[in-house]
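A note from the maintainers: we've had questions about how concatenated examples are separated. There is no special marker in the raw files; a new sequence line simply starts the next protein. For clarity in this README we add a label.
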Amino acid sequence: MEIWIPVIVAILSGVSSYLLAVKNTKDKIKILEKNNEVKIESMEKEHAHQIELMQKQIEMQSQREKDQSINDLTKGFIEKAMSQSMDGLGETLSKQMEDEIKKNLHNKKEQS
């Protein structure tokens, strides 16, 4: 019987070590799962925030392009209007100058 005591103690020690190791491993797995869940949630929030920022950047870029198009159209319209106005003004001034020169020539002929 004395020979069985160390064997029983060794078996009990081995089984208890095994059970303790299994329990510790399960606890560590639960802790890792919780940590991973927290990390995943954090990453999802960050990803959602980045998507939101990208959408805002796209909207801002689109608005800038729209504003630039409007500015370009307005600028072109104003330049065309000014060009036509200046052409008309030039023709009017030329006509007035021509009439003035004719009057001056006519007046000089009458005076001579």
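[label: protein 2]
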Amino acid sequence: MVKAVGRSGNESKETKKSKVKKSGKTELKSAKSSIKTATSGLGESVKGQFGDKVVEVLDNQTKLLDDF
């Protein structure tokens, strides 16, 4: 009985771990998409050095998410 409960716990843990990974990947895609949208919108709206800096920062954030 103890072994059965232990196995059930391990299976439950693996299922939860899988759900978290899948959810994390979905959130990551969503975040990257939002950043890309913001980058293109701000890149067209904000001109000059400040606009360039904003685009650079957002591109760095996208790269950071890619490495995550």
